[in-house]
Amino acid sequence: MIGKLIRKTWFWLLLLGALLGVAALGVTVTVLHKTSSTEFCVSCHSMQTPLAEYQGSIHFQNPKGIRAECADCHIPGDPTSYLWTKVRAVKDIYHEAIGTLDTPEKYEAHKLRMAQSVWDELKANDSATCRSCHSYAAMDILAQRPNARAEHPVAIKEGQTCIDCHRGVAHIMPDMSGLAAAGASELAQAAAQTPTNVTTRYAIATTPLFLDAAAKTDEGTLMPSTRVDVLANENGRAKVQIEGWQQDGVSEVFYAAPGKRILSVLVGDTAKKALVTGQSETDSATNLTWHQVKLTAWVDQTQLIGDQGKLWQYASTLMSNNCTGCHGLTALDHFNANQWIGVIKGMESRTSLTPEQARMLTQYVQKHASDMSAAH
Q: Where is each NapC/NirT cytochrome c N-terminal domain found (predicted)?
């Protein structure tokens, strides 16, 4: 009798536990679902600015009538990542409570950090949420617009992920000048650490040229990324030899290659007399004559770096941070060296690039253009 009573008790306890478990699971699923809705996401005061940005984007309204909700972009679909994202979201409640983003000024001050965090996450997970709707395998590339038709095969070949090119598709891009300044600072530190016995170096910025080690008046300007051969070091300056090409009749400037408007040096009147002219050749496309020239000058050692890779990494970051807010990243060989000049000038005003950064970016895209060799 007692044993039968015990068995019944256990049965009802197990049944009650199962029912409570199902109820708890149902409540949990409901809470997770409700807190993943766009309505919940934008219910906080601090989300009104990103809401307005989202409502003005193609992810909110488009010709196909397909809307990507907040969760579609910000919460990965696999169970582990989904739950981890929900756990991490607790911090948002804390920041809402203490007013971290409760004014437009505060929001703008934190916007770059928040955007970078999302970009880093998407980079790390291969743009998992983007790929829940978009995939290379499902794309009819031939039916896409000309730019996309040109860029997507490059992205596939180079193993790029969506966020490499498509930033700012749902929210207005933050001011990227802080990242650029940090990158320039890192580049300057790397240049300062370049051993003095490294003879092949590259200018990290627009830099004055002097005709002797102690001169106080510059006689020309070395353009960013220009290669120099270091001949000697003295008093914090490097004696360098710079090679390039001058168009016949144009003595104020010389370029990285004949027929290519890739600025290397702006030459002052006194420096013109120090130029050594070598061979000449005629550009078959324009019938213009070009002369090979050399200039020996002095430049601040701290403005030269031996690692060209770091220089191009900085320039590449400038491009990805400033040229993906309105369109995908354009392949470097999409234009020739001279065409890139107009492209950058036309887009510069729409970015946060400084004139110095624009010069570096122009050098980068020109020296990787369709008609340039890897030697530059």
A: 8-176
